[in-house]
Amino acid sequence: MYSKTVMDHFRKPRNVGVIEGASGVGEVGNPLCGDMMTIYLQVKNERIDDIKFQTFGCGAAIAVSSMLTEMAKGKTIEEAKNISNKDVADALEGLPKNKLHCSNLGADALHIAIKDYESKKAKKAIPEQEKNEPQTSHGGEKCYCPYCDAELESGEAQCKSCQLSSIEDHRSSNKKEGVQ
Amino acid sequence: MNIINLDHMSANPLLPEVQDAMIEALKSNHGNPSSQHKLGDMAANALEKARESVARLLNSNSPKEVVFTSGGTESINHAIKGVALAKAEKGKHIVTSNIEHNAVLRTLRRLKMMDYHVTSVPVDNTGRVNPLDVAKAIQDDTVLVSIMHSNNEIGTIQPIEEIAKITKEKKVLLHTDAVDSVGVIPMDVQKLGVDLLSFASNTFYGPSGAGGLYIRKGVAVWPLLDGGVQENNKRAGTENLIGIIGTGVAADLALRDMDKRIAHAKKLKGLLLRELPNYVTEYILNGHPELSLPHLASISIKYVEGESVVLMLDDENIAVSTRSACAAGALQASHVLLSIGRDFADAQGTLVITFGVDNGEKDVTTFLSALREAVKTLREISPLYPKAAHA
Q1: Which of A140, B151, B161, B266 could pair with A108 in a Cys bridge, judged by C-beta atoms 3.0 to 4.6 Å apart?
Q2: CATH number of the domain at A4-141, please?
Q3: Cβ within 8 Å, pair A167-B333
């Protein structure tokens, strides 16, 4: 199912961990899809000196995090901004179609971490509460209906047309139709 | 390679006796059971012998009530669509539960496209349907209730006998998806009171691609496949004789060895559940503590994701499942686990362990040691694992 490179990064993930006092933190994820990812950056002279990740997710999500950190390490901030979802998936020799959203998660986490770094650098007045809470994004990671593969809005377990009525719906529709 | 199979739910090995019977059948020059000559007679005899074996396993009144199919999915489609089409003039409402297998759910979704409507009843946090909810959901135009006998992800066994009393009283047909029960636990269609029951041969160490549908005498069901008059006019197409012969032998063995197999599975499951806290902390056991399949354990391990655990155990040559193998391609959390109250993250960390006749106690301890390492590694990576609390 997975390429050799994916399995290699899954078995021996690079750059796992947390950077205390990181220059930038990016957290993405949606437990509905089952994946959450946090990227920590240590930036020196506009270059990513160190990068670490934590991931809760499938084999692809862990491999994407690992590969992404390898790709970003040592790059300048401007270079790192150009790392795309596709670059990560390509470097992993491809991902199964239903796992492509994991690569979106990776690049998103990196880009949010970079934004976090830049806003800290610009010494923007970030409210105390926000500082403590890493930014969370729900962009990029699309979820699909398990029954018909239609794209889902966040929070739905299945698409509207695939939902069966519950007893409650059934009772209210009975009321409407004057049954019982 | 020596692989420890703790995923019997996904695929059971063929028992040697089943293999022998199928190989012999493969080599023999059997005819078509519908033919009027000796070769045809030989095939027809083998077919009916297997049908009798399955009828005994189900305690059916007559072998004529058993229709051979290509397996559980076809049987379920046949039962639901067959009743829906046969009863379309009476009504187009079907009642089911929130934790059915996709074979049931997707069949019902297909019927929804053809103006049928479906009411799905909830389950409690052990995965049990309340028969009173089924009674409430039945309305004037209800033609069928389809509730599974046991669940493939959490093992919970449903109160089918009580539900059957309700459907009988309300004159509605009852189908049960017993794919994970038949050949594993005692099955008696007369005592259960069901009108239709689906089963798959691989569940009891018969071949995959074979199974059947019990249709109580007198119940009108449209065929899924039209053509010849095979299977008492209920399923057209030349029979999969090799698979059916394997099914018959496997059914005989299941009936003969059932008590022994249940005792063996209970011993292994008991050992697993007793020892688990010594290897892994923070997990939830899913399903009903007693009314459950004896060979299945469903465990939601916190702060880790199931597929990662499966891949790591696979590196140690241990096969387990996360949710059902059929659901592994979907990215959604299991509807079964969400229905019994697991949250999304806990549902994602769910392993389904199913024991079989080829497992021993050593397999359990080998699994537990490997599981401990996998969970430890994955929790170190996981942002959800509250490290401070575990320091």
Answers
A1: A140
A2: 3.90.1010.10
A3: no
